Amino acid sequence: MRTRRFVKEGGKYQEVGPGDDKHTCAQTLLCFGLLLVIGAVIGFLIVVFQTGSCKYNIQPYKANTPIRTIAFGSCARDDLSIFNEINADVIVFLGDNVYADTGSPTSLQAIYDRLSCKPEFQDLVNRTRHVLSIWDDHDYGYNDVGADNPIKNESKSIFSEFWKIPDERRLKAGVYGSYVFNMSNGTTVSIIMPDLRFFREPLQLCEHCEYAEKCYCPTNRSLLGDVQWAWLEDAVNRSQRSDALTIIASSTQFGHAANGYESWTNFPRDRARLRALLDPRKSLVISGDVHWGEISVLDGLVDVTSSGFSEVDLNVLPNANRLGNAVPQRNYGLIDLENRTVSIYGVGHVRLLSVNV
Q: What is the pLDDT of residues 185-201, one digit of tens each?
């Protein structure tokens, strides 16, 4: 059956016959062709301007160089304008430094390349004397992934090259490592960066969740693995003997109360083991991941969470270990080594939270 079509001419609707459709079909084909051309041009421009890495300057690490301030934070996706406000001797990227969420090394590399071309990123790393980085799930592979990441070795190679990781970290499995700096009073500070992804055994799903459809329960499985544990215990013991301050840079939260989301609370044996190593009078944990900032205290040990550089979650979860209020806005952390204070700053360099360590 032929479809009847009508067009409005002179205030009245007139039926369009088969012969009258020819010019309409020709116009449609022309418009379709133009759309194809425009789409191809846009695609070409995207390829030209968004692929390929850009130059940026991450200076090689030199042990025992003097520092006064350490900035830190996590979760950087799109609006990185807060980078323009960060001014410190050291910056520690705590993970989710990009949001790749991919099993493709090619896609992961392209997303890192895109970060390298952002002016705010280039400016920050070019003017910061020491740039340190650890990964979390979204820049390691995909959401909540651990040792089962099928591209973990390729991901390590891309991560190490992008962040100019020293050979000492490249020559072993995972990306864990530690750095020692001098403070103005002649004492030292260590920044110890465990890898919470490469060796992490599977999470334990809960049957009932309070805050989400999917959540995780405590398990006796390992977060770090035996080899990394041996390294971490040695690094912490050496630092506690000689350094004035030991900083554990953790990609997920350490000191908060369990809420079912991914963190050290899912691995209570590992958390208790590290807590026993750390002297609260000489130690500090900095962490990321959750898309809000807060300060938690676990048996006297302070954990300052800075998240995110660009990502914000207004649905802040309860935390019985929280000191003061949470910060559900873009933020970064700053450690003042001379005054022994750790603060969380929001947009406009407004100090929102602070604690002495």
A: 999 999 999 999 999 99
> Is the separation of the CB atoms in 296 and 316 below 8 Å?
no
* CA 246/CA 189 separation, integer angstroms: 6
Provide the pLDDT for residue 87.
Answer: 98
End-to-end CA distance of the chain: 82
Give me the residue label for tokens 């200076």: 59
Helix, strand and coil in the chain, % to nearest 5: 30, 25, 45
Residue 92 in 3-state DSSP? Answer: strand
Query: From CA 271, how far away is CA 101, in angstroms rounded?
Result: 27
Q: How many CB atoms lie within 10 A of CB 240?
A: 16
Residue 218 structure tokens: 């405590």
The rounded Cα 345 to chain-centroid distance in angstroms is 17
Helix 119-127 to helix 105-116 angle (10° resolution) is 70
Q: Choose between 112 and 47: higher pLDDT.
A: 112
The two counts, helices (H) then strands (E), for the chain are 8, 16
Element (H, E) at 116: helix 105-116
Chain segment 218-270, per-residue pLDDT in tens: 999 999 999 999 999 999 999 999 999 999 999 999 999 999 999 999 999 99
H helices of 243-331, in order, are 268-277
As a dihedral over the C-alpha atoms of residue 102, residue 170, residue 282, residue 277, rounded to 10 degrees, the angle is: 80
What letter does residue 66 receive in the DSSP assignment? Answer: B
**Spatial distance between the Cα atoms of 344 and 152, rounded to a whole number of angstroms:** 32
* Euclidean distance between CA atoms 135 and 7, whole angstroms: 61
Give me 355's structure tokens. Answer: 């604690």
Instruction: Label residue 170 by pLDDT band (50, 70, 90).
Output: very high
Instruction: Give the model confidence (pLDDT) of 279-293 as tens digits.
Output: 999 999 999 999 999
Q: Are 329 and 346 in contact (CB under 8 A)?
A: yes
Residue 35 belongs to what H/E stretch? helix 22-50
Tens-place pLDDT, residues 105-132:
999 999 999 999 999 999 999 999 999 9
Longest dimension (CA), the chain: 93
